[in-house]
Design brief:
It is a single chain. 5% of the residues lie in helices and 46% in strands. The strands form three sheets. Strands 1, 2, 10, 11, 14, 15, 16, 17 and 18 form a nine-stranded mixed β-sheet that branches. The radius of gyration is 20 Å and the shape is globular. With 284 residues, the chain is mainly beta. The protein has one helix at residues 218-232; strands at 3-6, 24-26, 37-40, 61-62, 67-89, 96-106, 113-114, 129-149, 156-163, 166-167, 171-172, 186-191, 197-203, 207-217, 237-240, 250-255, 263-266, 269-279. It folds into two domains: 3-26 and 168-279, Elongation Factor Tu (Ef-tu), domain 3; 30-164, Galactose-binding domain-like (Jelly Rolls), CATH 2.60.120.
Length: 284
């Protein structure tokens, strides 16, 4: 499967079926900065808030109770941020009334402003959260609050992201499958000794895909692409192909196999590409 992202040289319009200038990739996490301190309202022994920094999805933070739980990131100096995300959470599984998930930022740790929009999880929805804010902000405090959870419940998540995501050079063209529809589940049927159907097993598999960005100005490639490759070959990233019209169709991704080298397709314009796997959770 291939994702073709059309570039935008002068005189070449974007496809009208998707929002131009809305494809983002988040890979540089504020939580990984050397002066970042991550604390939570509560945490289980061995499942501390510090686990949210690791890109390892097998680790997690888990609260000791419900009600209102907040994860706060503090820095010694302000940094730029335009996005946030959470991977492998149970926000839709815990009991509560009108459970809300809200990301915020602050310059002093006292006055807080919303980053992105408030989320109300729906039943069985374990989808990755990845939101793009309307503008880049500069702050030294960031937090995510999960509220209205029943007292006896425990909230959990594997990864928390705050950072300045990269706006890709263009938007997806036709001929590719968006993350929410690109599932690669495998079904194995079972039959009896007499050949009668008795059931089947569902085997979950990560999505695998590739995108190409064509007609990209060489200056953009030199300014952005190598830095992106240096990061995504070391750890996963968040991907949003249309943050305006399909804001919830996002994925937690990681590269696999050999990275593709940029190649000139016209004077001063190159084609770049990236192959990756992704976790796409659907409401069942």
């Amino acid at each position: 499967m291939s994702i073709v992202i059309a570039g935008a040289p002068a005189g070449q319009p974007f496809p009208t079926i998707w929002q131009a200038g809305a494809t983002y990739l988040g890979y540089s996490n504020i939580l990984e900065l050397s002066d970042a301190v991550v604390v939570a309202t509560s945490e289980e022994v061995g499942q501390e808030a510090a686990n949210l920094v690791s890109w390892n999805g097998a680790q997690q933070w888990r609260s000791t109770a419900g009600l209102t739980q907040t994860i706060t990131v503090s820095l010694t100096a302000a940094v730029d941020c335009n996005s946030w995300g959470v991977y492998r959470h149970n926000f839709a599984d815990v009991a509560g009334t009108n459970i809300n998930v809200l990301a915020e930022y602050s310059t002093d740790g006292d006055t807080w402003t919303t980053l992105g929009t408030q989320i109300t999880p729906t039943a069985n929805d374990h989808s990755t959260i990845y939101q793009i804010h309307s503008a880049t902000v500069s702050a030294s405090y960031f937090r995510v609050t999960v509220s209205n959870v029943d007292a006896g419940e425990k909230i959990a998540a594997a990864h928390l992201f705050f950072g300045e995501s990269l706006l890709l050079y263009g938007s997806p063209d036709t001929g590719w499958t968006p993350p929410a529809l690109a599932f690669e589940d495998r079904f194995v049927g079972s039959v009896s000794d007499r050949g009668n159907f008795i059931g089947r097993s569902l085997i979950r598999q990560a999505m695998r895909t590739r995108f190409n960005i064509t007609a990209v100005e060489s200056s953009w490639v030199y300014d952005n692409w190598q830095t992106l490759l240096d990061e995504v070959q070391k750890h996963p990233f968040y991907f949003s192909w249309d943050s305006v019209n399909h804001a919830t169709d996002v994925a937690f991704c990681w590269t696999d196999g050999q990275l593709t080298k940029p190649a000139f397709m016209a004077p001063n314009h190159l084609t770049v590409g990236l192959s990756f796997n992704a976790v796409v959770n659907r409401v069942l």
